[in-house]
Design a protein that fits this description.
It is a single chain. 24% of the residues are buried. The chain is mainly α. It contains four helices and no strands. The protein starts with a helix and ends with a helix. The chain has a single domain, classed as Non-ribosomal Peptide Synthetase Peptidyl Carrier Protein, Chain A (Orthogonal Bundle).
């Protein structure tokens, strides 16, 4: 699983969200003070992204857990931070 591929998956999911910015890339802010997602849209993006990762890599990951919400900097703040978090979770899961 390459970072660029994960970013592409996230961008594809985000583009389908009503009200998404016209240009979505790794710098797109998702959630928080500068993000465009409300809580419900964030949940949908997370679930759809998990499903796409599962479909593409046959890897069932969970992104919305105690660890993700307890981090000092939310992994959901941007496409790039979400991609990095996915790669971390995926690496830990494949090593287990």
């Amino acid at each position: 699983m390459e970072r660029r591929e994960v970013i592409d998956i996230i961008c594809q999911v985000v583009r389908e969200v009503p009200g998404a910015p016209e240009n979505v890339d790794e710098n797109t802010r998702l959630f928080g003070s500068e993000g465009f997602l409300d809580s419900l849209k964030l949940v949908n993006v997370v679930l759809d992204t998990e499903q796409q990762i599962n479909d593409s890599y046959n890897l069932a990951i969970s992104l919305a857990d105690d660890r993700s919400v307890s981090q000092k900097r939310s992994p959901f703040r941007s496409v790039a931070s979400l991609a990095d978090y996915i790669l971390t979770v995926a690496a830990e899961q494949t090593q287990a």
